[in-house]
Amino acid sequence: MLVSATEMLKKAKAGHYAVGQFNINNLEWTKSILATAQELNSPVILGVSEGAGKYMTGYKTVAAMVEAMIEEMNITVPVALHLDHGSYEGCYKCIKAGFSSIMFDGSHYPIEENVEKTKELVKVAHAMGLSIEAEVGSIGGEEDGVVGMGECADPNECKAIADLGIDFLAAGIGNIHGKYPDNWQGLSFDTLAAIQEKTGEMPLVLHGGTGIPADMIKKAIDLGVAKINVNTECQLSFAAATREYIEAGKDQQGKGFDPRKLLAPGAAAIKETVKEKMELFGSVGKA
Ligand code: 13P
Q: Of all residues in the chain, what percent are helix, strand and coil, respectively (each to 5)?
């Protein structure tokens, strides 16, 4: 059964570790992430961007697939199905489709409008038993065609959004989606510390988990980050393993072209990446 992410993240914040949100794209992704979480006895959050939801033919398909996999694979660790960077309309669609958590990304609205829409969605999400994440200060890089500049959030605005009753808060601290450029300045720990001071118990979310050095991840967790989002890194490891298989000509040997064989190295690579992250985030054994 799917659970909201509230309890797992409260526990993570209190226990000084973080739960990974791993974005899914298809059946292989979902299966690999769920299997790894179960093997490592770790809670997990499956993230679905609006683009990935569309790719998988819609949120209803995604929710049905994830629910069925949890049952068929005998997954007993806590699993949340979470809309990543949701629009106002997307949030309503996911609530209806059976997701257990949503993110409303109102960071591109003026703060007053972000507050107003977040407030409304908090009420609806909580009435339906879902957890809700909100965002202040845009996360840099490009995701699903939305380009952010990686600004640092204003701690006072973070407090204003946190006070609306949301369950966890994504705040820009110089993090960006995708690969980090060579001239990246690193995370702004001063900003993170100021946000943590203003928002207290609120679990904080670090987007753009791909490629952040281990010491920065650990420091971010020390300063209140309880959820870390990873997307690109699983894509890179899947692509590299698949390329290796094809370049070795394995798709042309025997029935190597069978999709169950062709996609197997990529799926195994995702498992390895998820395992590394869960170990780094400290969520192993915390289910
Ligand atoms: P990366 O693709 O950089 O890992 O970021 C994922 C993310 O933050 C999803 O919201």
A: 50, 20, 35
pLDDT over threshold 80, residue 143? no
Helix (H, G, I), strand (E, B) or coil at 23: strand
Verify whether ligand 1 is closer than 6 Å to residue 237 (CB atom).
no
Read off the pTM. 0.96
Ligand 1 contacts CB of residue 229 (under 6 A): yes
Positions marked catalytic: 84
In angstroms, rounded to a whole number, what is the distance separating the alpha carbons of residues 244 and 241?
Answer: 5
Residues 212 and 264: their CA atoms lie apart, in Å, by: 27
- Angle ∠(206,269,26) on CA atoms, nearest 5: 75
Strand 146-148 and strand 141-143: pairing?
antiparallel
- Averaged pLDDT for residues 39-56: 98
Atom of ligand 1 at shortest range from CA of 103: 10
Please report which helix (H) or strand (E) contains residue 70, including its range.
Answer: helix 59-72
Q: Which two tokens stand for residue 163?
A: 């006070």
More confident residue, 273 or 136: 273
Give bridge partners of residue 141 from the DSSP assignment. Answer: 148
**Is residue 172 within 6 Å of ligand 1 at its C-beta?**
no
Asked whether the CA dihedral 36, 92, 7, 229 is positive or negative, the reply is: positive
